[in-house]
Amino acid sequence: MMTARAALAASAFLASATFAQADCSKVQLAEPGWTDTALTSGIAQVLLEQLGYSANVELLSIPIIYQFMAKKDVDAFLGYWDPAMVQYYKPFKEDGSVVTVTQNLEGAKYTWAVPSYVYEAGVHDFADIAAHGDEFDHKLYGLSPGSNDSMIDARDNGGFGLEDWQIVESSEQGMLAQVESDVKRGKWIVFMGWAPHPMNAEFDMRYLTGGDKFYGPDFGGATVHTQFRKDYAEECPNTGKLLSQLKFTVDMENIGMGYILNDGMSPTEAARKLLGEHSDMLEGWLAGVTTRDGNPALPAVREGLGL
Fold this sequence. Notes:
- Pfam families: OpuAC.
- Keywords: Signal.
- It is built from 17 helices and nine strands.
- By secondary structure, it is an alpha/beta fold.
């Protein structure tokens, strides 16, 4: 018969063996088709590859990202917007299958917006929209399917008179193309706006009040966080340390997102350019991190990126 102490030792051994068997050489990231998360995931991918790891970023809807993390098919997600995404995360937080590791951005915001000429015509608040149904063609412009639960809730709650309005779902690029087209023609449009994003410089736009219940106060004022699947940091401490130390600024992301949206760069191309311009951030990101074969990370990354 096994003693309690022996059983505990066996349990600890099996747990450590499980962690040891995890394949940490491959890191699976996910992003929902948002340029900010594509950029930050691209930065993570470039750094991981410079350290000798294989890194992949998969495009998935938000609900699928969480399902895949719960199944351990995705290791990390760098785009959890709090409070805008609380409802998506709640069941996975409660069952412990996904954990929030660190805040990687502050100063973000996320709520409905209109062109300034619409704002100047009197649409300042969610409650002002319904009175101008014909001008707006009874449409609200959102993001990809699975990303618009808050917009759907705001439409359907009965407080704004928008129950019969259509929510037009498309990619971020598709929505912004619609905004650009409508602005050029002086048409009225309500759309999802957020910062960081180059849209804030490209369009003369204003954020609407009235959405606190659905997006949080201060125009959906948000912080963005990095999340891991359960046990990832314990199984893969080196890559987990790197990913948990990545922190960004709104200005930095605005510039990098512009490289993707305006200059046609891929996320990793934009990441490389941005890393060259912000190499001072590498020291903090790579503190205590090594290459896959155990050498100091900072000199290896600097040499690999020609910095």
